[in-house]
Amino acid sequence: MSEGFGAFVRAHGGEGRLVVQPRMGFGDPHRMREGLAATRAADALTVGTITLDAHTRVGHLQAVERALRDGSDLNGYPIVSHEESVTRWVLSAASGPGFPVQVRHGSAAPADIFRTLTRLGLGASEGGPVSYCLPYGRTPLAESVRNWRESCEVFAGLRERGVEPHLETFGGCMLGQLCPPSQLIAISVLEALFFIRHGVRSVSVSYAQQTHPGQDREAVAALRRLCGELLPTDDWHVVVYAYMGLYPVTEHGAYRLLGQAAELAVASGAERLIVKTVAESRRIPTIEENVAALEYADRTAALTGRAPDPGADTQTYREAAALTEAVLNLHPDIGEALLRAFRAGYLDIPYCLHPDNRGETRGRIGDDGRLLWERTGALPIGRIAGSHRARPVTSAGLLEDLSYMRRRFDEVAVEHRTPLPVPGTRGTGAG
Amino acid sequence: MSGTPDTTGGRAPDHAPRTVVVTSMASDAHTWNLVFLQLLIEELGYRVVNLGPCVPDEVLVEECRDLRPAMVVISSVNGHGYQDGMRVIRRLRAADPLATTPVVVGGKLGVTGDEDSERVAELMAAGFDAVFDDGADPAAALRGFVHSLQAGPPALAGRAPAG
Ligand code: B12
């Protein structure tokens, strides 16, 4: 069996080393091919990404065709619509031993996508029945669970072709912002268990950088501990996402935040990091911007050491363990357990508009920058989380919380240590 | 949809507040923009029906036909706003009672981050009453538009004032 995505990352990442990956996707096959080649050639330890466009995610293949015909730009690569020979040509620029490629999509009905991946022999993707449903549209959760069960089983079929399929949970992101870490961890672990139960044996669990480095380190430690306790395999690793909320608009702000994500990843022992670029706040990044971000993250990682373990029994761990356990106790079938959990409010994503989400919880940023539960609704963590006074929500107040990181990182502040010079500016020590 | 935040910000007028539809379009999954716009428009004194993300064209047309809203506020940030917007506005305008309903769109409409005046003009020509650039302060932009509505029928030619 050829070395799969999971095996590659576990062989090369962790213990202070970091595999870095872009969020790259272009509609034009030439650009996609060039992007993969440039990712591989970057001066960093990289894996490749093909991010799919938003029409393909919702199955609107007609809209893809219209865009391709009219020459309108898509926000990703339409893998179901391009001829398979075209995609093989795109991949042939870079993909192969030593450079696994992952397909990222965001679909609650991904069967077509997974069938296409299986035919192409593409062995790595991501998502999950919850994380690609609630924040991604209006597909009922029960349908998403059914679709993802089927898709895992289709994908597991890749093993017959000598490829070990790998799936990453997107549960560590959810809406990107204002969801306290414990629930992100719980959903990530539960989705990994779901994948494994449905035949995928190599998984990764995600965690998106939030608003406080100390809390984030606690969170990754809690995630690792829970995976160790609950996943019936050793073939797992942790992937950190650079901040998934409103991104800084300045170049220095964007790089500082990316640098902090790389530090979090290395300090917490994560094996892989998905980067963000200077274009994040505005538009789809170019190939060059992606390469610059990969190299910056790699250099920052090289200067970072493993941090002391924040201890096993943190509040984040206790909340995440309580959530996970409560959900698992609802039903032996994990898909069914997830459905019951959302119905009962044992899982409940702050500010999520999806009809299958109760919407009784609320997160907010505390004075010290940590994400707190302002309202826990029916989450089974009321006692652990404690209570905080709930304030009325206004448009300005919401925007202020959403912009917290943007504001802080765009400010020109005195750093506790000299940050790496940003690419394209003159400076020393850029390695 | 459920989960919309309860608000206390808006001061509703004495008479029943008029309804505004806040919505995304078929391909767009982002929702923070919708939650924000809902709060903002409620604060302007309207009742808001938030249709949520990835709204299929038919659902959007049907809901608007049933609700007869005072205004439809469309948000798109995923880069497909031009494509989705051109398709959707034609369908809205073709539905009889919506021929003259004020319909505006804003967000990040393309994938290149530039304001593309040609595409804005196309969207306006296809039937939008205003197209807001991402750079515009959304609160000022919407307040300005609402005031222009209260002053008379929307007669905005070209791009709406950014406030
Ligand atoms: C959070 C986030 C997500 C979350 C969304 C969760 C959710 N349910 O909302 C997740 C991770 C799921 C996600 C997914 C994707 N995302 Co996203 N996402 C973001 C991010 C980081 C922040 C968005 C946010 O929270 N905004 C908060 C709200 C309040 O602000 P806003 O959306 O910017 O809107 C403001 C203005 O635009 C304006 N406004 C908006 N609409 C309207 C309408 C009117 C009438 C007016 C007056 C004003 C107005 O008012 C708001 C307040 O100022 C942005 C990048 C960024 N901005 O930093 C990318 C971003 C929007 N995403 C992007 C993309 C492409 C995607 C994906 C397609 C994946 C991909 N290919 O990379 C998928 C979407 C799938 C789909 N079907 O659409 C791109 C869009 C690129 C473009 N337009 O050129 C961005 C810009 C990132 C990037 N640079 O690539 N995303």
Automatic annotation (TrEMBL), chain A:
Which top-level group of life is the source organism from? Bacteria
Q: Which GO terms describe its biological process?
A: anaerobic L-glutamate catabolic process
Per UniProt, the keywords (alphabetical) are: Cobalamin, Cobalt, Isomerase
Q: Which GO terms describe its molecular function?
A: cobalamin binding; methylaspartate mutase activity
Q: Which Pfam families match?
A: Met_asp_mut_E
Q: Tell me the protein's name.
A: Methylaspartate mutase subunit E (MutE) superfamily protein
From TrEMBL, chain B:
**Recorded GO MF terms:** cobalamin binding; metal ion binding
Domain B12-binding span(s) in chain numbering: 17-156
One Pfam family per UniProt: B12-binding
- Check the record and name the InterPro entries matching this protein: Cobalamin-bd, Cobalamin-bd_sf
Q: Where is the signal peptide?
A: none
Protein's UniProt name: Putative B12 binding domain protein
Species this protein is from? Streptomyces himastatinicus ATCC 53653
Phylogenetic classification of the source organism? Bacteria, Bacillati, Actinomycetota, Actinomycetes, Kitasatosporales
